[in-house]
Design a protein that fits this description.
- This protein has about 240 residues and is of the alpha/beta class.
- About 35% of the residues lie in helices and about 20% in strands.
- It has helices spanning about 30-40, 55-60, 75-85, 105-115, 135, 180-190, 195-200, 205-210, 230-240, and strands spanning about 5-10, 25, 25-30, 45-50, 65-70, 90-95, 125-130, 145, 155, 175-180, 215-220.
- Helix 3 packs across helix 6 (about 180-190).
- It is globular.
Length: about 240
């Protein structure tokens, strides 16, 4: 079975333009993500999917495999679907290009979760950290995932849910990893973006809005997305200690 790791990387971030090439401890952020993804025990091959010549030039100079894609894709997973038109694989794993601390074990856990879930007819999987910090609960850039009792996603949201009306609840942190079968990825790209996806700006809500199930699995804490220059400083401090 071929499992392709795809790292979407675009230049035009609203909050932090050009962040894939921002330097962290002497190396571009996208390069950190590449190196971590290459350590996965399950990933067969890794490519960076970009729409920007500057990112492509960096990849070319540093021997990172890349695919040029359209600039019109609304989300990273839509960009993955174009990669699927160019590179055949059984499973496509979306590893967010702004997660330089992503653990290879987390990539493997989400991919393994999908392979198991396929026996139940579920063709998309993701991961989450089981306990959010107090700071994360107050941060709208943090996405929370509500798991069901059978290991699937009830919902994603930037609000700290569930609300503890009668029982103390532990809130999670969603990790930017999505493992798709080829069929699910092609379907995802054809589905209409719904009002909840647009409101929350969380791409895989589209899959839920159209009535499909998503498997989920807890992963090791430690990774977080770089959304601002301040996040970059935090990541650099962590990496310099390693």
């Amino acid at each position: 079975m071929k499992v392709l790791g795809v790292i979407p990387a675009r230049w035009a971030s609203t909050r932090f333009p050009g962040k894939p090439l921002k330097q962290i401890a002497g190396k571009a952020m996208i390069h950190w993500v590449w190196d971590q993804t290459k350590k996965s025990a399950i990933i067969s091959e890794v490519v960076i999917a970009t729409d920007d010549k500057r990112i492509a030039d960096y990849c070319r100079i540093n021997d990172l495999d890349f695919v040029m894609t359209s600039s019109s894709h609304p989300t990273g997973s839509d960009r993955l679907a174009e990669v699927a038109d160019k590179i055949s694989a059984d499973v496509y794993v979306n590893v967010q290009g702004d997660e330089p601390l992503i653990e290879p074990e987390a990539i493997d856990a989400v991919t393994s979760c999908l392979l198991t879930a396929m026996d139940r007819g579920i063709e998309l999987a993701t991961g989450y950290i089981e306990k959010a910090s107090g700071e994360q609960l107050d941060d709208p850039s943090i996405v929370h995932l509500v798991p069901s009792m059978d290991g699937c996603v009830i919902t994603f949201t930037r609000l700290p849910v569930p609300y503890p009306l009668v029982e103390t609840m532990q809130r999670t942190v969603h990790v930017g990893l999505y493992a798709f079968t080829r069929k699910a990825l092609k379907l995802f790209s054809k589905l209409e973006r719904g009002p909840v996806e647009r409101a929350e700006s969380i791409e895989v809500i589209r899959y839920l809005e159209h009535g499909y199930r998503i498997a989920c699995v807890p992963v090791t804490p430690g990774s977080f997305g770089v959304d601002t220059p301040e996040d970059l400083i935090k990541v650099e401090a962590i990496l310099r200690k390693k």
